[in-house]
Task: structure prediction
Amino acid sequence: MTDRKVLFIGDSTNRGMMYFLMERVNSSLEDWGKAHDTLVYRNLNGGRTLVGYSYYPQFWLEKNQRPTFRQALLQLLHRSQPLVNSNLTVLVVGGVQWLNTDHLRTVREVLDRESLSDIAVVVKSLGMGFHLPVDGIRSLSLKEVQELYRENRNIITTAKHYGYEVIDTFGITMGRYKEFLQGRCACHFHEVEKFWSSKFSDDMTSTTNGTGSTRAGPGLSSQSTVPDTDQGAWPKALSYHVRGPVNQVYSEILLSRLCPKTRN
Result:
């Protein structure tokens, strides 16, 4: 992940993948939130990796006030500058059930216009959710689930036609309804736990493990590796951990898609 910028645009299921990747790359997760706007983390991996995120769609707004997909994508790209037109820049697009082939066409048009046609694009396809009757939450009929399956196939076909990588989360999540984790949205396969850990000052952490960085706004730095018995006197720091085996599976697939095609 050194020298790479990974940009996510999508809903909370994409956000779960982003935080899993951040924790994996940085060995810890010290900033987390249910963000519904645009975030940029510039000091991951000792300042050698950038991760950006833009929430879409902003369904709680009136339709005439919601930013379009094109607007949300452009904002994410502009806030993450400078970007290199190569696979060092990665765009991850996807969500639960709003994505369609028109969005992929917009991705291609925007990247062409922004001179970023050679970046890596990974499409997270549709996912299951809302298919069990639960009081207070919308649910899908069998016919609607079948239509969702057909739309998912169209998305995968279009993405491959454009030369994009695909993670078929619909197939992964179809039979996993018992593994939904708590939340108002019956579509989450991850949750974030928080815990307190002892931590050195930023300078000492940087010296110890080589991944500390100056925090400019929200960001991350690795935890100290000093034994617990030696940490008791140090201040406690709040850290987070992303859990959920299904989210982990398709996040691991994402990481594998980012690996070089050839190995020494």
